Protein 1
Amino acid sequence: MTSSTVAQAISDIPDPEVPVITIQDLGILRHLEVDEARHHVAVTITPTYSGCPAMEAIERTIRHEAGRAGYTCEVRTRLSPAWTTDWMTERGRERLREFGIAPPGIAPTPGAGAVALTLQRRVVACPQCGSTDTEEIARFGSTACKALRRCRSCREPFDEFKAL
Amino acid sequence: MSSDTAATSAAAKPVAAQYLQGLADDALVYAQRLGEWISRGPQIEEDMALANVGLDLLGQARVLLTRVGELDGTGRSEDDLAYFRDEREYRNVHLVEQERGDFGFEMARLLWFSAYQCELYAALRSSADEILAGVAAKALKEVTYHQDHAAQWVVRLGDGTEESHRRMHDALVAVQPYVAELFEDDPASSAAAEAGVGVLPSSLGEAVSARVAAVVEEATLSLPEPSRWRSRGGRDGIHSRPLGYLLAEMQHIARSHPGATW
């Protein structure tokens, strides 16, 4: 197996909770280095949310893929700089949309500013019919990274990947 | 336990460890409380919301506790610290250990606590401790969302029906005695601030209160007068009755089956 194959195998690992998107397209694979001489792979990943339970599964899968290709492996978790949905690739966003999950908008800038009483409506397009006439049902969805919305045009509920 | 050895070393590390312990315990204990809402929320979406808020806090606590074990030189793991410390070794404030009240109480508590964490983590992004700075930058995004969630509920309930208004008011009154402790300097936080690792709790009070006051006003409520008694002592390991029960529930499996893995 060549180094590019092992790199590809690791990059293509699907996110365990949103399996239509790879860890590379999600932007949580921060660094991948293959040492051909030592048959060793060094990988750096970053969590989406502090308590994301998928991180351990992702780390295990990376070790498994490296081992399968005959490489030893070191997986590091890096917190800083903090992950942002802005790191998600175009391809990743398209995959989410096809799967029925609205991709994230532009990440808000967190800061020490005043409380934003966001009872206002963000514009989120329905991944099913494309209508922007949608409403939020719940601010926390089936995983930490998603919120639940409903389309007023086609009446279908859908997940939204929260901008972070 | 070799914490005494670490405390006698001259470096800033033991002080930083104590300071981080307080931050970690606040997050851990509140995560445990929030988890109690699962299947008890007013609607299933709220079960999930509070569980997710708790999960974020648990994630913050895990990294912070791991760091504590490195800084204090004992090499204790996050699990050692979470499961095998007794009540008197916990450094959290009383606010987070209080029993779960009604949903209004939880929103009042979450509003104060998340507003506090927003200001805290915003300041700690420039901590001299790189791990803490990393946690802060990451967590700030999360707690901003928590605060937004609590704020929306406080406004909805305060500016809702006569009953929801009254109960949201009662909730703010019930939480009030526990607020001052968040902004009280203790020897660990003072020394950590001095070392550039931490931030003085007293320096956060004004900004946090302004955040809460803006929400409360929007909710057609008013902040209650400071109560005649107030909680104190959490950072010294002096706790109120509910913490022992919370720890018993959280720790009993790990203690009944030492070394068990799952």
Note: Chain B has one domain: 11-256.
Protein 2
Amino acid sequence: MLKRMRLGALYEILGIYLIALLLVAIGRFVSPQFLTNENFLNILNGVVLLGMAAAGMAFVTYSGNMADLSFPSIMAFSGIITVAALPLGLIPALAIGVLAGMAIGAMNGIVVGALKANPILWTLAVSFFMEGFMRFTWSNNQVYPDTAPGTSGAAFIQLFRVSAGPVPLTVLVMIGMFIAGHFVMTRTRFGIETKLVGSSRETARTSGINVRRVILLDFLVAALAASTAGIFLASMNKLGVFYLGLGYDFKAVTAVVIGGMMLSGGRGHLFGVLGGVLVIGLMSNIMDFLGVTSFRQNIVTGGVFILVVGLHQYLLRKRGKDYA
Amino acid sequence: MEGVSKRYPGTLAVDNVDFEARVGEVHALMGENGAGKSTLMKILAGSFDDYTGRIFIGGSQREANLHSPAIAKENGIGMIYQELSLARPISIAENLLVGRLPVRYGFLLDKRAMIAEAKRCLERVGLDIDPMTTLEEISQHEAQLVEIAKVLGNMPCILVMDEPTSALSREEVDRLFEIIQQLKRAGLTIIYISHHLSEVFRIADRVTVLRDGRKIATKDISEVTPVDVVQMMVGKRIDEFYSKRKAVIGEPVLKVRNLTRRGFFHNVSFHASRGEILGIAGLSGAGRTELARSMCGLDPLDDGDVELGGDFVPPESYQESVRRGLFYLSEDRKSDGLFLRLPVQQNLVSVLIPWNTTLGIYSSRNDARVARDMIRQLEIVTASALTDAGTLSGGNQQKVLLGKWLAGRPRVLVLDEPTRGVDVSAKMKIHDAVMEVADQGNTVILISSDLPELVGLSDRVVVMRNGHLIGEMRKEQLSEESVLLAANGQMERANA
């Protein structure tokens, strides 16, 4: 009994990396080109933006608010705004883009925290509204930077493409976000309070925690991460447009949940989420090698999500945690 | 009912009780919390399949085996609980006829027949409202009558009412009593559970008193006085349980002036001193919990102010209250007391977060020590400090809840039902800890429906009734009888 409990705890921490190793073995079996440095960078490049988004999404999930479905619109919006603001210079444009995204996060945090709106429905509505707003404002058009050499636009499109040695800037930023996020989640007052709010919002309130402020901050952190990912996404595509970011809401939640973070809040950790991101990248890479089209890949990703959520629920019951 | 018993793990909740109710009478069932009233009635309602003893209904010689709610219903037993079983967003008619909605062609809802039938049901309880109104649009009192109408729809011969008046105003109580009289004349047997002596003496024909799971007596109401009933309920127990604490009472530290939250409590003023345990007595619905929550800043206030150690405590700002050492221990550990899914240790240090933080960084250095000390002090039985709090027994969960606030070093600790549903040894441990907090020069405010606890621990008691503070009793005036009489609004007799 005790042994099984320990195994369960071990699985929670290492399980996702075991699955990743299993996938690596499968990949080796599928193609000899799989185990190359080049392919490994390919995999990382494929999920690096998802990783940034998932690192932020995890804060919302951890706080017991399940998911922020306005991620696609935050990403698209901060991308467009950054591109539009490029004439002011690169750094001001980046700052304005991030602030634009965080403004949406602030709104989400206030409505969900103070007014107790259902987070899923509210952020879904925000996503819908923002898409309409962006289509209307920019007349359905894409926004292009001026990419003549020497301009801030040229520097902007390099953001996604520069590397420090062999390691792309994006990967460094993602890893930095996970390390900083992990520190915030486990070592700061805000992180501990997020865990408590995620475990029981009512108990957190009667324990003297400012629940509204904590939830506001969680949505702000999430929006900061989504904006960063959105700006890199715009840099990658060399343009800003309302549909960039599509699908990142669900994929980010999938990574968070596969990574062992419970949708009910208060449980899990960010390095699990990083593992979840890698697993998604590995699956997608293997399917690429097998020639599986991207629509069929969606079926697999969705299927894995269903499986993992089902498994979580099963494990919770099995451990007799119906008090949870 | 003959020789009926029901055992819960660890306690015999109902112990060999004989109980008889006659056709066409209102029979009151009285007793303190935990005396076994509710359990006895749940047996009658078929809630348990493991009671012992025999039950006969309607003069039949055949034993009724009330092992499920459905069987109890077939035997003509109708229950009206404190919490209504009605669904709020749907219409009265649908609530009334749930499970037996009239249909046409096998599946189409026959709306006209439904409304007609619902009207007939409502007439029986003297309600004249449109059956298509939803439950949200009617008052608490009307909803209660709808509940009665719903239960009457099953044609019961025995109707059990558990504290039916706790949410009603005086006029509404009058109307309810008229309806009870009508039902009685129609030949129903009504079993009426209440803590309110005045109601029992108005409505009941006979009264049965339970204590510690046993029947004390059944009497005609004309034979007894309220004081007799209270004495039967309380018994002549000498409680060695409460060591005679010598309280050293210092200067007043908490001053509450004209506190009002409309609809809950009005113009409440009192003070509490260092080293003092101040009890708040009152029946359920008197407004004690609401007062405590608003006073601590968890719920809104309409008027009045709270002064702690010379400073005003800002209203509706519980974080600020906690910072100043004014703590509220929730009456419901499961919904807002404990983090059930988190380890005992995390629960025990959850109040300390602001103190363990420097520049936003939380230091967990002391967590393990705080948890270890608290587990030792309160003798919390847990596999380890890292076990989830939700897996502990009720008594140990309650200790964790208390420990969480003790770890925060309270100046004023407000305890709301601190020993609800816990075993005797946990209760004693909790009492010891509470007395120790007071002995260290802090203030404890105790809300408890457990009379021996309230009387045994308190140095002074203020009494609430219907949202008003109606009196104060000094230590030497305190007895279970006097507190119960006072809570029932009989202050003069209480102090006699």
Note: Chain B touches chain A at residues 298, 318-319, 321-323, 328, 330, 334-342, 346, 350-351, 353-354, 357, 360-362, 388, 390-391, 404 (CB under 8 Å).
